Amino acid sequence: MKNQTYHINAPVTRTIAQVSDLHNKDGQPVLASLRQHSPDIIVISGDLVMGRKTREEKIIMEEEKNILPFLYGCVQIAPTYLSLGNHEGSLCDEDMDILASTGVTVLDNRWIERDGLLIGGLTSAIATNFGQFRKKNNTENPINEKNLKPYQSSRSHSMRLFPDSTWLDTFEHQPGYKILLSHHPEYWCIQEPMLINRHIDLVLSGHAHGGQIRFCGHGLFAPGQGCLPKYTSGIHEGPYGRMIISRGLANTAKMIPRLFNPRELIYIELG
């Protein structure tokens, strides 16, 4: 794991640690770095959990043993904010209550104000859609192996899902420095809600895992972007703000290793 630091001109002075795509891996090395750097704020930009395919309603927080110790460790270091990525679509209401009980602020299509910062969380369209699907397919119509998620019948179907972004119309016009946790970097300018056109100062994303295999500074593949994706890592400028993409802290592609692509913990120095 490497630490990557970005310095951003801003009207406020803060150190922000960005965690992304932990996927229930051992969080102790991350916590060690966080304790050493002592950030003012910790943000988790999605895919904290691994999630799974299931026919039953199970409490994922009882199965993925690394999550709660990691979150308890984070909140002891700094105020911690979590937005929901596609893997959080597997979480049920009880899981969400357990997450909140750690002291982490869950930003599910909402924002909070803290000391001159506005921090919002744009939930993955996949998580929103799967959550609606789960509520519809309750105990009277349980999820089965052939219909695990609403988008699995077609690989391209998930690309046609759009997040609930109506609240961004209000968020982007609030006074103060605005930070948006948005797990999917393709929401920047590949598919709606086209965050590049929003008056949002800083968008923090993950999901692409750095393109999985990197050659000459470019990733090979990313979900939602396909082969030779443009948005897998680094900082990207827009007319009103910028996006920082984390390469993430885990590998969920079982058959495809991460090559020339170290796991990444990001620190952002505002000021």
CATH fold category name: Purple Acid Phosphatase, chain A, domain 2
Q: What's the level 1 CATH class? A: Alpha Beta
Helix run count: 6
- How far from one another are the termini? 26 Å
Structural class: alpha/beta
Q: What would you give as the CATH superfamily?
A: Metallo-dependent phosphatases
**What is the chain-wise order of helices and strands?**
EEHEHHEHEEEHHEEEEEEEEE
Q: How big a fraction of the residues is strand?
A: 25-35%
What is the rounded Rg? 18 Å
CATH architecture field? 4-Layer Sandwich
pLDDT averaged residue by residue: 89
Query: What characterizes the major β-sheet?
Result: 6 strands, mixed
Instruction: Flag low-confidence runs.
Output: 139-147, 152-156
Strand arrangement in the largest pleated sheet:
1-16-2-3-4-5
What would the principal axes of the Cα set say about the shape?
globular
How many extended strands?
A: 16
The helix fraction, in percent, is 10-25%
The number of distinct structural domains comes to 1
